[in-house]
Amino acid sequence: MGAAAHDDHGHDIPATGDGTQFSVAHHFDTADQQFNSNKMGIWLFLVTEILFFGGLFCAFFIFRSWYYDSFVEAHHHLDRIMGGINTLVLIGSSLTMALAVRAAQQGKRQLVVLLLAITILCAFGFLAIKYLEYTHKFHDGLLPGKYFHATGFKSQHPGMFFAVYFMMTGIHGLHVVIGIGLITWILLRAQNGEFGPRYYAPVEGVGLYWHLVDLVWIYLFPLLYLVGG
Amino acid sequence: MSSAEHSHSDAGHGDAHAGHGHHRPSKHVPHVLPLKTYFICWGALMVLTAITVGASYVDFGAANLIIAVVIATIKASTVALIFMHLLYDEKFNAIIIASSIIFLGIFVGFTMSDTEGRGLGEKIQGERPQNISQPFERTHHDQVLVDTWAPKGSTSAMTGPPGVIPPKPSASVDPVPVPVPVPASAAPSDSAAPAPEGSVAPAPSASAAPSGSVKPAPSTKPDKNP
Q: Between chain A's N and C termini, which has fewer beta carbons within 10 Å?
């Protein structure tokens, strides 16, 4: 009995195929408790992310208040169609991510891999459109702060808008890049058959992160691209 | 007899321990939402995106920002409640995320009430006579605001370090320089914000400061007098 208990107790039992076999760490009572603790940790991390982006949003509101005319004039140089398409791409990737979590809950391995692959494709699509937007801005001299050298602006501080724009979308883009890495990691593990109805916490965690990236964009897009006067 | 009882109790304890969980993990049963829920949410998000883009072509004035933020919040709530399973999750996770939003509101709200309200306090100080012996000689209109945010080479850039009031050739000495109010833009206009947009120079009445880069004060300069 002792030997058997020891085997059950082990931390390093490899997952086999459908994810039905995994270990509950010894400091958790149940698999449910372990799962919920895992998820709560991700939510706490998301709180730090919200407060992190919150600083940038605060900067946006301050500078918008100080340089209102400049912000209104400069925001017309953003392409709201491109931004809108990017919003749809990101929302679509959020859907496929949520469906990937659902597929993992049902133990559909191939479907998880497929949906995660589509999510990664959407993320690359988002970055590609962002790249087109950025190069267009660079070409026009719509650059942050003192590097701003576009002409024909009536207001005095359009560079401030682009400073905020590039900082916010840049850091958001960095989160997309990190997300691609995380989803790839999850995809490989799913392909390896590590997840199933009993154990899919990493899929859920990465999914929560990816949804937060989507959430941030949901606010960034209207504030930067749409809100004028 | 006693030893047999002892071993029996041992075994009982062992059973209870095994049932405790980590030797034999209880199974986590996922809460699977119907596929329809996801697609309805996705459709709602697409429609709301179209609405917010469409609304941006219509000018609602000051409501533009509010409309955009309200639509974004509806979208964000949909993602958080359904895609992120917050609706079906442990309520503690909802408390965690709500707390972050509350603190974000405190952060942004207090910051904005500060930056929007600046100059309201200085206004009183700005109305003090600079030279107590000649209380009606000068007013705060003589203050020079330096645009420290101006891009390099911009016409609005001022010479000298920020916040410096150019000396006056007149005999009256200013013991107390009027504090330079940093942006206090109550009115939604660049020109209404004192420091940022366009440099502000001495009032026409005052003796000419050693100007060169100094422009006349714009008429829309915020009046500190009530």
A: N
